[in-house]
Amino acid sequence: MIDVRGLSKTFEDRKRGKIEAVKSISFEVHKGEIFGLLGTNGAGKTTTLRMLATILQPTAGTAVVAGHDVSAEPAKVREHIGYLTGDTNLYTRLTPREMLTYYANLFGLSKADRLAAIERVAKRFGLDEFIDTKIGKLSTGQRQRTSISRAVIQQPELMIFDEPTAGLDPISARHITEFIREGRSGGVTLLFSTHYLREAENLCDRIAIMHDGEIKATGTLAEILSQTGTEDLEQAFFSLADPQAAAAT
Ligand SMILES: Nc1ncnc2c1ncn2[C@@H]1O[C@H](COP(=O)(O)OP(=O)(O)OP(=O)(O)O)[C@@H](O)[C@H]1O
Ligand SMILES: [Mg+2]
């Protein structure tokens, strides 16, 4: 479903100079799998997901997403994915219903399909109590639930989610993880980023641990533990992302 080969992104930052945000990473995400990108702040997760969602052009390397190359056929890639950005940049002057209507129309849904789609996400993510309130007046978690609804309004076969549960209370977070699990039973593929070790452990079929622009380990939880000679994901994570702290414990 996703095939990433030697993907790199270098930013030219006026103050900081050249920043190698992603350094020649390679990994695959198989159809129907939940794949977690786990990493520290600044590891390069968002940059990676933005390249896969065709928001950013890679500096080097290739990525094929849902059968299409991100550089050659970005529009085709976008037709197949539901992308949730990390920045909750929503149209503050619209209501969730207006925004969802707008996106449903972009995907060419008929009126009946659009109404059904909005009802489906409203129920799934508990939007009803604020669906007609301007987004500018919503709480962080309410905005996040609106963003996720927007990302999946067209029922994509592949979801790319940047920190889907960030800013959510435990109950709302549970709604999202349930939604993700249901998706998997329906054959939907999910690639998502997270800082939460527990979330990665509970949800993922496979995990990649990213640090400083590189993928340090990839595999099932059991594979990562055996690769790192550790007993749990927390130890594995520290041994890869912060070896000094790991040695001190
Ligand atoms: N547009 C940009 N211009 C310059 N540098 C950037 C840009 N976007 C990201 N970076 C840098 O690239 C590196 C990786 O950032 P990225 O946002 O991909 O990390 P992340 O793993 O998503 O971190 P977090 O967990 O904090 O969200 C950081 O050093 C960041 O400052
Ligand atoms: Mg990020």
Can you walk me through this structure?
The chain has 249 residues and is α/β, with parallel strands linked by helices. The protein has a single domain (2-248), classed as 3-Layer(aba) Sandwich (Rossmann fold). The chain has ten helices and ten strands. It has helices spanning 45-52, 74-80, 96-106, 111-124, 140-151, 170-185, 197-203, 221-228, 233-241, 243-248; strands at 2-13, 17-29, 34-39, 60-65, 68-69, 81-84, 158-162, 189-194, 206-211, 214-219. A six-stranded mixed β-sheet has the order 6-7-8-3-9-10, sandwiched between helices. Helix 3 (96-106) crosses helix 4 (111-124) and helix 8 (221-228) crosses helix 9. The radius of gyration is 18 Å and the shape is globular. The mean pLDDT is 93.
Shape: globular
Order of helices and strands: EEEHEEHEHHHEHEHEEHHH
| Nearest-integer average pLDDT | 93
Fraction in beta strands: 25-35%
Number of helices: 10
Q: CATH homologous superfamily - what is it? A: P-loop containing nucleotide triphosphate hydrolases
- Domain count: the total is 1
What are the segments in which pLDDT stays under 50 over at least 5 consecutive residues?
A: none
The level 1 CATH classification is: Alpha Beta
In quaternary terms, these chains amount to single chain
**How big is the Rg?**
18 Å
Termini separation (Å)? Answer: 39 Å
Q: Helical proportion?
A: 25-40%
Number of DSSP E strands? 10
Would you tell me the structural class of the helices and strands? alpha/beta
Question: Which ligands appear in the coordinates?
Answer: adenosine-5'-triphosphate, magnesium ion
What is the fold-level CATH name, i.e. the topology?
A: Rossmann fold
